[in-house]
Amino acid sequence: MFRRTAGVLAVAVALVGLHAPAASADVVVADVVVAARTLTYNASGAAEFKAAVDAGAAVWNSSVVNVKLVSTTSSSANIRVVADNGWPRAQTTSLGNGTVWMGREATNEGYNPTRIAAHELGHILGQPDRKPGPCTSLMSGSSAGIACTNPNPNAREKSEVEAAFRTLKAAGVWQREFVE
Ligand SMILES: [Zn+2]
């Protein structure tokens, strides 16, 4: 969640449903071929935040190599991004899959929409909130203040996302659970 306020965290950012697959020569071969896990996102419901969502996705694409975010209009996208009047938030169903709400409450208060989009996509990529934190941290979210417009993950955040998707790849979960 983007908001600093503590409370009931309805959003569980967790690695769910990752099971070690049975050994398979096919998985191993495919694992070598695939360079990055591609996740699709559908921001057609993001209204005025569409450009910010694309910019936030581009930030991740330029920050990590083990996962790539690609825009789609398909209803079967890994990530659905919508706009509403609440606080920005994200809910994952499993690593790389879920819903982002680009809540207007934060932007109405002056928070930067691209930073919000990158932050919420960070949750989908397995990142937890790190609040309070400095502006150099993407996952410090709103705790860095309205003046903070940095949309970039820091070194730790990047390396953790890389590691999360590298683990999927190494486990072969990739081909089994994330068939595109
Ligand atoms: Zn958050």
Name every ligand kind in the structure. Answer: zinc ion
Largest pleated sheet: 5 strands, mixed
Helix content: 25-40%
Per DSSP, what share of the residues sits in E-state strands of 2 or more residues? 15-25%
Q: State the CATH class.
A: Alpha Beta
Give the overall form: globular
Helix tally equals: 6
Indicate the low-confidence ranges by residue numbers: 4-34, 174-180
Number of domains: 1
Question: What is the level-2 CATH architecture name?
Answer: 3-Layer(aba) Sandwich
The rounded distance between the terminal residues' Cα atoms is 27 Å
CATH topology: Collagenase (Catalytic Domain)
Q: What is the subunit organization of this protein?
A: single chain
Radius of gyration: 16 Å
Structural class: alpha/beta
The topology string of helices and strands comes to HEHEEEEHHHH
Number of strands: 5
- CATH fourth-tier homologous superfamily: Collagenase (Catalytic Domain)
Quote the average pLDDT: 83
Q: Strands across the major sheet, in which order?
A: 2-1-3-5-4
Output the keywords.
binds zinc ion; Collagenase (Catalytic Domain); 6 helices; 18% strand; 180 residues
Walk me through this protein's architecture.
The protein is α/β, with parallel strands linked by helices and 180 residues long. It has a single domain (33-171), classed as Collagenase (Catalytic Domain) (3-Layer(aba) Sandwich), CATH 3.40.390. It is built from six helices and five strands, in the order H-E-H-E-E-E-E-H-H-H-H. The chain has helices at residues 25-33, 50-63, 104-109, 113-124, 155-171, 173-177; strands at residues 37-45, 67-71, 79-84, 89-94, 97-103. It has a five-stranded mixed beta sheet. Strand 1 (37-45), helix 2 and strand 2 form a beta-alpha-beta unit. Helix 2 (50-63) crosses helix 4. It is globular. The two termini are 27 Å apart. The site of zinc ion has 6 residues, from helix 4. Zinc ion binds at residues 1-2, 119, 123, 129, 141.
